[in-house]
């Protein structure tokens, strides 16, 4: 089986000003993680400063969105190449907040993922069902449809990351059970293998949804979980550091 290097990814969402870079410096100083990759995705305004602050550290910096185009008359948009120029190496795409607030469709996420890969960065493609979907028994159908529509045909398994984030678990304190996580992660792995072939064994699958220091170790011991996408708990060095340590030891 392919060796997948684990990944702890922080999503700062629309939080963070220059003084908050102190949290990143504290994380870098106090929580070395030789066995896993660590990524922080701050608001676009902080990407360049955060990469400068981390220049001597393996912690990587990413974006939370980008345009599907590489340049042009698209006021207010930022291309994947521009994120790379600012120091980003990953881009979160299709987060459920963007799917809901900006009406992002699978086709839009797919176009952005292609742009991210073309710019030499790694897309972190998010999928996940709502509570209504789960109650209606259509979790695997919804996740499968999002995955099919959001992952570009040309993807190499090792060059994309997929994050399973049940919408009902994001920012709510509700966490999926390890059985629920394993069922969806195993299904995602099987669908990716069907779609992309054996390289899909190299795709890192992250769980996201109220991951905290207290539940991280159990989640990281779950089938086909290669790390986490962490929102709220990534804002504080002590909390994110504890999650990273749990991943590093898993
Ligand atoms: C997220 O924003 O992707 C997320 C999982 O948030 P939280 O960890 O706060 O639930």
Computed Rg: 17 Å
How much of the sequence lies in strands comes to: 15-25%
Extended strand count: 8
Write out the strand line-up for the largest beta sheet, numbering strands in chain order.
1-2-3-4-5-6-7-8
> In the CATH hierarchy, what is the architecture at level 2?
Alpha-Beta Barrel
Structural class by secondary-structure content: alpha/beta
Low-confidence stretches: none
**Could you name the CATH class?**
Alpha Beta
Q: Number of helical segments?
A: 10
Order of helices and strands: EHEHEHEHHEHHEHEHEH
Principal-axes geometry comes out as globular
By CATH, the topology is TIM Barrel
Indicate the mean pLDDT.
Answer: 96
Spatial separation of the terminal alpha carbons: 17 Å
How is the main sheet built? 8 strands, parallel, barrel
Fraction of residues in H or I helices: 25-40%
Q: Compute the number of structural domains.
A: 1
Binding site for substrate: 11-13, 171, 210, 231-232
Active site: 95 (electrophile), 165 (proton acceptor)
GO biological process, one term: gluconeogenesis
Main location: cytoplasm
């Amino acid at each position: 089986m392919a060796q997948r290097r684990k990944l702890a990814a922080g999503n700062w969402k629309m939080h963070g000003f220059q003084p908050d870079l102190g949290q990143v410096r504290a994380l870098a100083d106090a929580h070395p993680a030789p066995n896993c990759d660590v990524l922080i995705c701050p608001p676009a305004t902080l990407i360049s400063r955060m990469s400068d602050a981390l220049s001597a550290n393996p912690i990587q910096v990413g974006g939370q969105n980008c345009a599907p185009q590489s340049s042009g008359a698209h006021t207010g948009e930022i291309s994947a190449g521009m994120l790379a120029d600012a120091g980003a190496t990953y881009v979160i795409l299709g987060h459920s907040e963007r799917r809901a607030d900006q009406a992002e469709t699978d086709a839009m996420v797919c176009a952005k993922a292609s742009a991210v890969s073309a710019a030499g960065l790694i897309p972190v493609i998010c999928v996940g069902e709502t509570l209504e979907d789960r109650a209606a028994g259509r979790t695997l159908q919804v996740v499968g449809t999002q995955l099919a529509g959001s992952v570009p045909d040309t993807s190499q398994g090792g060059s994309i990351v997929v994050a399973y984030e049940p919408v009902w678990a994001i920012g709510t304190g509700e966490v999926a059970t390890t059985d629920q996580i394993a069922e969806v992660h195993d299904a995602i792995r099987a669908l990716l293998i069907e779609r992309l072939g054996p390289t899909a064994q190299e795709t890192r699958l992250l769980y996201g949804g109220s991951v905290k220091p207290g539940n991280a170790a159990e989640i990281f011991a779950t089938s086909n979980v290669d790390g986490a996408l962490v929102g709220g708990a990534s804002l504080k060095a002590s909390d994110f550091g504890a999650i990273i340590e749990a991943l590093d030891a898993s």
